[in-house]
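Q: I'm writing up a methods section and want to include an example of the input and output format. Could you take the sequence below and give the corresponding predicted structure tokens, formatted cleanly so I can copy it straight into the document?
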Amino acid sequence: MNMTETNSSVRNIADTALWVAYFRARETERPDALFRDPYAARLAGERGFDIANTLPEGNKHEWAWVARTYLFDKYVSEEIEKGADLVVNLAAGLDARPYRMDLRPDLQWVEVDLPNIVSYKNEMLANEKPKCRFERIALDLSDVPARRKLFADLNRRAKNIVVMTEGLLIYFTSEQVAEFAQDLAACEHFQSWVIDLASPGQLSWVIDLASPGQLKLMQRTSGTQLSEAGAAFKFGPREGPKFFLPYGWQAVDVQGLLQTAAKFNRSPKELRPVVLDPNCIPANFPWTGVCLLKKI
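A: Here is the clean output for your methods example:
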């Protein structure tokens, strides 16, 4: 099967990229949109819309996807303003930031994802021009030797590199995340990380962390079908952002998705944001947030 075949179920991790693009398209249609992604609807395609509207609770957490995108935009933009000269988007999915954001022409931007996603994206955006120096690389990031080789190459290209992993770490085990973090920390010029590890379905480094409580909630709902498709949720550290300290990274800013969504009137009426110290979040509290990490 390719990414454009009609099928409303989620077959693999790549399909979640279509789902995420659908929510970006929905937000873009709003008169008060927090971001504009004119490519999202095209990238989501019919399958993306079908997945969101047929998967159990497929539309329930739209607020979280929107808040996460907004926070990633915010952190990455701030890091660029502070002097980042290369953005590395690992497991980029169908992200269109190099095309839709206001970027310096001399900024380097590298996307990495699975071959089928890269091929699909190359086709869908073939006639579009990115706003910076841009490269798209096909690579399975679970291939440890290959990714270390890639990281070493990228490390030589710039002096102040910001990494983002939006919708990746939640599919890794704690051991795999620890190894991944160490691989990044081993690169001298990787200075910041924007990571996400939560969201149903899916600074500086930008990080989105799921608590154990949120992980269990997600696994009981849409996570069931995703597990059957080989996209099971695995990572929800009890330590929260402190998980990364032994592996070379320290959280310098953490923003909750629910609090962010409430700020912009995106959160569901039945949910009430609870302001918590991100370093003292109860293990079973269903919390997700985006966190900016800095190299220690």
